[in-house]
Amino acid sequence: NAGVTQTPKFRVLKTGQSMTLLCAQDMNHEYMYWYRQDPGMGLRLIHYSVGEGTTAKGEVPDGYNVSRLKKQNFLLGLESAAPSQTSVYFCASSYGTDTGELFFGEGSRLTVL
Amino acid sequence: AQKVTQAQTEISVVEKEDVTLDCVYETRDTTYYLFWYKQPPSGELVFLIRRNSFDEQNEISGRYSWNFQKSTSSFNFTITASQVVDSAVYFCAPGGPLIFGSGTRLLVRP
Predict the structure, then answer these.
(1) B69, B82, B67, B66: which is closest to B19 by C-alpha?
(2) Taking CB atoms and an 8 Å limit, are B91 and A42 in contact across chains?
(3) Which of A59, A97, A101, A104 to probe the B interface (max B CBs under 10 A)?
(4) What is the pLDDT of residues B49-105, one digit of tens each?
(5) How many Å apart are CA A17 and CA A78, to the nearest integer?
Protein backbone atom coordinates (compact mmCIF):
# COMPACT_ATOMS: atom_id res chain seq x y z
CA ASN A 1 0.00 0.00 0.00
CA ALA A 2 1.15 3.51 -0.75
CA GLY A 3 -0.37 4.91 2.46
CA VAL A 4 -0.25 8.71 2.30
CA THR A 5 1.29 10.32 -0.75
CA GLN A 6 2.12 13.99 -1.13
CA THR A 7 2.93 15.81 -4.33
CA PRO A 8 5.09 17.63 -5.10
CA LYS A 9 7.97 16.78 -2.77
CA PHE A 10 9.81 20.04 -3.47
CA ARG A 11 8.75 23.37 -4.87
CA VAL A 12 10.24 26.81 -5.14
CA LEU A 13 7.88 29.73 -5.60
CA LYS A 14 8.22 33.45 -6.00
CA THR A 15 6.30 35.73 -3.70
CA GLY A 16 2.75 36.14 -4.92
CA GLN A 17 2.59 32.92 -6.91
CA SER A 18 -0.02 30.31 -6.19
CA MET A 19 0.25 26.58 -5.88
CA THR A 20 -1.57 23.49 -4.67
CA LEU A 21 -0.22 20.60 -2.64
CA LEU A 22 -2.00 17.32 -3.15
CA CYS A 23 -2.40 14.65 -0.49
CA ALA A 24 -3.79 11.24 -1.37
CA GLN A 25 -4.46 8.33 0.97
CA ASP A 26 -5.53 4.81 0.13
CA MET A 27 -6.54 3.64 3.62
CA ASN A 28 -10.14 4.83 3.44
CA HIS A 29 -9.57 7.20 6.35
CA GLU A 30 -12.25 9.75 7.14
CA TYR A 31 -9.89 12.27 8.71
CA MET A 32 -7.15 14.18 6.98
CA TYR A 33 -4.82 16.95 8.11
CA TRP A 34 -2.30 19.44 6.84
CA TYR A 35 0.57 20.55 9.06
CA ARG A 36 3.55 22.78 8.64
CA GLN A 37 6.85 22.16 10.36
CA ASP A 38 9.24 24.97 11.10
CA PRO A 39 12.50 24.71 13.06
CA GLY A 40 11.90 24.72 16.80
CA MET A 41 8.12 24.90 16.46
CA GLY A 42 7.13 21.32 15.99
CA LEU A 43 4.10 20.54 13.90
CA ARG A 44 1.34 23.08 13.62
CA LEU A 45 -2.05 22.20 12.24
CA ILE A 46 -3.16 24.32 9.29
CA HIS A 47 -6.50 22.79 8.31
CA TYR A 48 -8.17 19.47 8.71
CA SER A 49 -11.13 17.51 7.41
CA VAL A 50 -13.40 15.07 9.18
CA GLY A 51 -14.92 13.74 5.99
CA GLU A 52 -15.55 14.31 2.31
CA GLY A 53 -16.82 17.78 1.66
CA THR A 54 -15.89 19.14 5.10
CA THR A 55 -12.96 21.25 6.25
CA ALA A 56 -12.04 23.08 9.42
CA LYS A 57 -9.38 25.52 10.53
CA GLY A 58 -6.46 24.50 12.65
CA GLU A 59 -3.97 26.55 14.59
CA VAL A 60 -2.42 28.46 11.67
CA PRO A 61 -4.96 28.65 8.80
CA ASP A 62 -4.26 32.15 7.48
CA GLY A 63 -2.96 32.27 3.92
CA TYR A 64 -4.09 28.73 3.10
CA ASN A 65 -7.19 27.15 1.67
CA VAL A 66 -8.16 23.51 1.48
CA SER A 67 -10.64 21.28 -0.26
CA ARG A 68 -11.80 17.70 0.25
CA LEU A 69 -13.88 16.92 -2.81
CA LYS A 70 -13.04 13.23 -2.67
CA LYS A 71 -12.53 11.14 0.44
CA GLN A 72 -9.07 10.06 -0.56
CA ASN A 73 -7.73 13.50 -1.48
CA PHE A 74 -7.03 16.61 0.56
CA LEU A 75 -5.68 19.66 -1.26
CA LEU A 76 -3.80 22.54 0.32
CA GLY A 77 -3.68 25.76 -1.64
CA LEU A 78 -1.62 28.90 -1.34
CA GLU A 79 -3.27 31.68 -3.29
CA SER A 80 -0.49 34.25 -2.93
CA ALA A 81 2.64 32.75 -1.48
CA ALA A 82 4.70 34.70 1.06
CA PRO A 83 8.23 34.04 2.35
CA SER A 84 6.69 33.27 5.76
CA GLN A 85 5.13 30.20 4.16
CA THR A 86 8.52 28.66 3.50
CA SER A 87 8.25 25.42 5.42
CA VAL A 88 7.94 21.68 5.26
CA TYR A 89 4.35 20.59 4.87
CA PHE A 90 3.04 17.26 6.07
CA CYS A 91 -0.22 15.64 5.27
CA ALA A 92 -1.67 12.98 7.55
CA SER A 93 -4.73 10.81 7.81
CA SER A 94 -6.36 8.81 10.58
CA TYR A 95 -9.37 6.71 11.49
CA GLY A 96 -10.45 9.16 14.18
CA THR A 97 -9.63 12.66 15.31
CA ASP A 98 -8.43 12.04 18.83
CA THR A 99 -8.43 8.28 18.97
CA GLY A 100 -6.54 7.15 15.93
CA GLU A 101 -2.87 7.43 15.24
CA LEU A 102 -1.75 9.58 12.36
CA PHE A 103 -0.28 8.20 9.17
CA PHE A 104 1.96 10.79 7.57
CA GLY A 105 3.10 11.53 4.08
CA GLU A 106 6.78 12.08 3.40
CA GLY A 107 6.51 15.83 3.46
CA SER A 108 6.72 18.62 0.89
CA ARG A 109 9.43 21.23 1.15
CA LEU A 110 8.25 24.61 -0.07
CA THR A 111 10.51 27.61 -0.48
CA VAL A 112 9.06 31.03 -1.22
CA LEU A 113 11.56 33.57 -2.49
CA ALA B 1 -5.13 19.20 25.04
CA GLN B 2 -4.99 22.95 24.90
CA LYS B 3 -1.29 23.25 25.54
CA VAL B 4 1.67 20.91 25.51
CA THR B 5 5.22 21.54 26.69
CA GLN B 6 8.30 19.58 25.80
CA ALA B 7 10.79 21.58 27.80
CA GLN B 8 13.85 19.69 26.62
CA THR B 9 14.81 21.12 23.26
CA GLU B 10 17.83 18.88 22.76
CA ILE B 11 19.31 15.98 24.68
CA SER B 12 22.65 14.35 23.98
CA VAL B 13 23.59 11.01 25.51
CA VAL B 14 26.18 8.35 24.99
CA GLU B 15 25.03 5.03 23.63
CA LYS B 16 23.65 2.64 26.25
CA GLU B 17 22.58 5.45 28.55
CA ASP B 18 18.94 5.66 29.60
CA VAL B 19 17.13 8.84 28.65
CA THR B 20 13.73 10.28 29.52
CA LEU B 21 11.85 12.76 27.36
CA ASP B 22 9.34 14.88 29.22
CA CYS B 23 5.88 15.92 28.09
CA VAL B 24 3.56 18.07 30.16
CA TYR B 25 0.18 19.23 28.95
CA GLU B 26 -2.88 21.20 29.92
CA THR B 27 -6.35 20.03 29.08
CA ARG B 28 -9.94 20.71 30.04
CA ASP B 29 -11.03 17.35 28.67
CA THR B 30 -11.87 14.54 31.04
CA THR B 31 -11.10 11.78 28.58
CA TYR B 32 -8.48 11.95 25.90
CA TYR B 33 -5.75 10.07 24.12
CA LEU B 34 -2.03 10.75 24.20
CA PHE B 35 0.48 10.03 21.46
CA TRP B 36 4.20 10.01 20.80
CA TYR B 37 5.74 10.25 17.34
CA LYS B 38 9.31 9.91 16.13
CA GLN B 39 10.98 11.83 13.31
CA PRO B 40 14.36 10.33 12.38
CA PRO B 41 16.91 12.32 10.39
CA SER B 42 15.36 11.03 7.17
CA GLY B 43 12.36 13.24 7.94
CA GLU B 44 9.38 10.92 8.01
CA LEU B 45 7.04 10.91 10.98
CA VAL B 46 6.35 7.60 12.66
CA PHE B 47 3.73 6.73 15.25
CA LEU B 48 5.12 5.22 18.46
CA ILE B 49 2.33 4.88 20.97
CA ARG B 50 -1.24 5.79 21.85
CA ARG B 51 -2.59 5.76 25.39
CA ASN B 52 -6.00 6.71 26.71
CA SER B 53 -6.51 8.78 29.81
CA PHE B 54 -8.39 5.98 31.56
CA ASP B 55 -5.33 3.83 31.82
CA GLU B 56 -2.41 5.01 33.92
CA GLN B 57 -0.49 1.79 33.73
CA ASN B 58 3.01 2.18 32.42
CA GLU B 59 3.55 0.83 28.93
CA ILE B 60 6.68 -0.99 27.88
CA SER B 61 7.67 -1.97 24.39
CA GLY B 62 11.16 -3.35 24.16
CA ARG B 63 13.56 -0.60 25.17
CA TYR B 64 10.78 1.99 25.14
CA SER B 65 8.54 2.78 28.07
CA TRP B 66 5.97 5.42 28.81
CA ASN B 67 4.89 6.84 32.13
CA PHE B 68 1.49 8.53 32.17
CA GLN B 69 0.47 10.42 35.28
CA LYS B 70 -2.88 12.10 35.04
CA SER B 71 -2.45 13.89 38.36
CA THR B 72 0.55 15.80 37.03
CA SER B 73 -0.61 15.90 33.38
CA SER B 74 2.56 14.28 32.20
CA PHE B 75 3.28 11.59 29.65
CA ASN B 76 6.99 10.91 29.69
CA PHE B 77 8.93 8.64 27.38
CA THR B 78 11.99 6.65 28.43
CA ILE B 79 14.47 4.87 26.20
CA THR B 80 16.53 2.28 28.00
CA ALA B 81 20.01 1.44 26.78
CA SER B 82 19.84 4.01 24.00
CA GLN B 83 21.24 3.27 20.57
CA VAL B 84 22.51 5.49 17.78
CA VAL B 85 19.39 4.60 15.76
CA ASP B 86 17.29 6.27 18.43
CA SER B 87 18.63 9.64 17.32
CA ALA B 88 15.58 11.57 16.19
CA VAL B 89 13.16 14.28 17.11
CA TYR B 90 10.37 13.03 19.33
CA PHE B 91 6.99 14.71 19.48
CA CYS B 92 4.36 14.40 22.15
CA ALA B 93 0.76 14.93 21.07
CA PRO B 94 -1.65 14.75 23.96
CA GLY B 95 -5.24 14.88 22.87
CA GLY B 96 -4.67 13.71 19.34
CA PRO B 97 -3.80 15.43 16.10
CA LEU B 98 -4.85 18.95 16.90
CA ILE B 99 -1.80 20.00 18.89
CA PHE B 100 1.78 18.79 18.98
CA GLY B 101 4.64 19.61 21.27
CA SER B 102 7.62 21.45 19.83
CA GLY B 103 9.66 18.26 19.97
CA THR B 104 12.80 17.06 21.69
CA ARG B 105 15.83 16.35 19.56
CA LEU B 106 17.70 13.32 20.89
CA LEU B 107 21.27 12.68 19.81
CA VAL B 108 22.78 9.35 20.80
CA ARG B 109 26.55 9.34 20.38
CA PRO B 110 28.52 6.15 19.86
Answers:
(1) B82
(2) yes
(3) A101
(4) 988 888 888 888 899 999 999 899 999 999 999 999 999 999 999 877 878 999 999
(5) 8
